[in-house]
Amino acid sequence: MAEGGSGENGENGENGENVVATAAIDARALEEVVSATAELIRCDTTNRGGGDGSERAAAEYVAGQLADAGIAAQLLEKAPGRTNVVARIAGTDPAADALLVHGHLDVVPADPAEWRVHPFSGELRDGCVWGRGAIDMKNMDAMVLTLMRAWARAGVRPRRDVVLAFTADEEDTAEYGARFLAQRHPELFEGCTEGLSESGAFTFHTDDGLRLYPVGSAERGTAWLRLTARGTAGHGSKVNRANAVTRLSAAVLRIGAHEWPVRLTPTVRAALRRLAALHGVETGDLDAPGFDADALLDKLGSAATLVRPVLRNSANPTMLDAGYKVNVIPGSATAHVDGRMLPGAEDEFVRTLDALTGDDVSWEFAHREIPLQAPVDSPTYATLCEAVEHFDPGAYAVPYCMAGGTDAKQFSRLGIAGYGFSPLRLPPGFDYGALFHGVDERVPADALHFGLRVLDRALRAL
C-alpha cells in the first residue's frame, strides 16, 4: 500500500451489514482494541483530587505498547506517579500542520460494592468491556493506541505529523497532566494546530428514529466558585440581623433560582439549524428579538437534549459549610457553586454573580477554565463528520457543544483548536451519558471496532 493510501476493501461487520475496512484494521487490530481497553481498565488510575492519584501503571502500559510498534514515547511527570505519555508519529508532508490526538488516563473513584462486576476487572461480559474508564475514556485511549500499532504493522504513515498525548489528572484540575505539559513542555506540541479527544461522535438515538452523531466543536468554561458570607458571631438565642448563615442562604437561593438568558454560540446555532432541518422544522430568524429557543427545542423531541444544557450559562450551588454548634451563630459561612460559562459569555457570568451575591457575600473562582469554540465550517470538521457517516449510512453527524470540559482547554493555550471525536456506534437504549462517572460503566466491543475504523479513516484523511 502506498503511504497514506486508503487500502479499502469490503468486509462483513459484526451485525452482518457491509462495512468498509482498511488494510490496517484487520482481525488482529479488532481483537487488540478490546484487549487494550480491558488492560487499561485493570490499571487502577483513580484520581481522588487534590493530587491523590497515580497514572503510572497505565502510562507504562501505553509506552510499552508504543515501543513494541517502534514508536518512541516520553514519560513525563510533575509529581511521582502522575505520569503522562507523549509521542510523535512523523507524517509524509513535513510542511503540513501537525495534529494532536489526546486522551486522559485517570478515572474518577468507583465503589466496588455498587457494581455488578469489579470496576477494575476489565471483564468482558454480554459483549461489553466493563469497568471504570470504559467510556471515560480508556476506550478512546485504546482505540488510538491500537490504531497506531496497526499503522506501524501495515506501513501506514499519516499525511501530517500526529502527536499523541495520554495525560494525567484530567478528572481534577489538569495540574499534573495537560496543564503541566502545555506549560512546561510546549515544544512537544510544536506545529499542532488542531486536536481530537473525548466526548463526541457517539450514537444518539432520537425518539423519532434518527441516528445522530454529535461531533464536538465547543465546550463551556468551568467556573467553580467559593462564596463567603461574613457577619456577627453571637448566641443562637438572640436576634442577629448580621447572621452569616442567613446572608449566605439568601445568596445561594438567588443563584439557584436565577434564569440565565439564552446565548447562541456558533456551534449551538449550527446545531439548531441542522437538527431543525432533520426534523422538518423552520428555525426562523435566530437573531430576531424575542426568538424563543426553548420553543424551538420543544419541536425537536429527544434531540433537544443535545442542545438544551448549552443554551445558557449555568450556576448550581453544590456545597454548604457553616457553624460548629447549634446554639452559636458563626461569624462566617461558605458555599460552593458549580458554574459553567459559554464561549463569549464570561463577562456576563461575572457581572451576574456580582449582582446575585450582593453586598454581604463575596465570591471568588476556586477553579476556572476557559470556554472553547472551534470552527464548524472547517475542512477538519467536515472530514470528521464524513468518517462517521461513512461507517453508519443513514446516520447524521451534528454540531455539538459540550456542557462540561476536557483537556482541550489546556492545549488551546498553545493555539490548538479542539474537537470532541471519540467515535462509538451504540445500540438503542444504551445510556451513554449516564455511564460517565456512573455505576456499571461499560462499552460494547463492536462499538470499539466501529470507532477504530472511523478513526483510521478520519486520521488518514486529515
Q: Would you mind describing this structure in some detail?
A:
The protein is an alpha+beta fold and 462 residues long. It is 30% helix and 26% strand. The chain has helices spanning 27-42, 56-68, 138-154, 178-184, 244-257, 266-278, 293-298, 346-357, 379-391, 408-412, 432-435, 445-461, and strands at residues 8-12, 18-22, 47-49, 52-53, 73-77, 83-89, 98-104, 124-125, 128-130, 162-167, 192-197, 204-205, 211-219, 221-230, 234-235, 314-322, 328-329, 332-341, 361-369, 372-373, 396-402, 417-420, 442-444. The protein is globular, with a radius of gyration of 24 Å.
Please give the radius of gyration in angstroms.
24 Å
- Report on the biggest sheet: 6 strands, mixed
Average residue-wise pLDDT: 94
How many DSSP H or I helices? 12
Quick take:
The chain is of the alpha+beta class and 462 residues long.
Itemize the secondary structure elements and their pairings:
Blueprint: E1 8-12, E2 18-22, H1 27-42, E3 47-49, E4 52-53, H2 56-68, E5 73-77, E6 83-89, E7 98-104, E8 124-125, E9 128-130, H3 138-154, E10 162-167, H4 178-184, E11 192-197, E12 204-205, E13 211-219, E14 221-230, E15 234-235, H5 244-257, H6 266-278, H7 293-298, E16 314-322, E17 328-329, E18 332-341, H8 346-357, E19 361-369, E20 372-373, H9 379-391, E21 396-402, H10 408-412, E22 417-420, H11 432-435, E23 442-444, H12 445-461
Parallel strand pairs: 7-10, 7-11, 11-22, 13-21
Antiparallel strand pairs: 1-2, 3-4, 5-6, 6-10, 8-9, 9-23, 12-13, 13-20, 14-18, 14-19, 15-17, 16-18
Helix pairs in contact: 1-3, 1-12, 3-12, 9-12
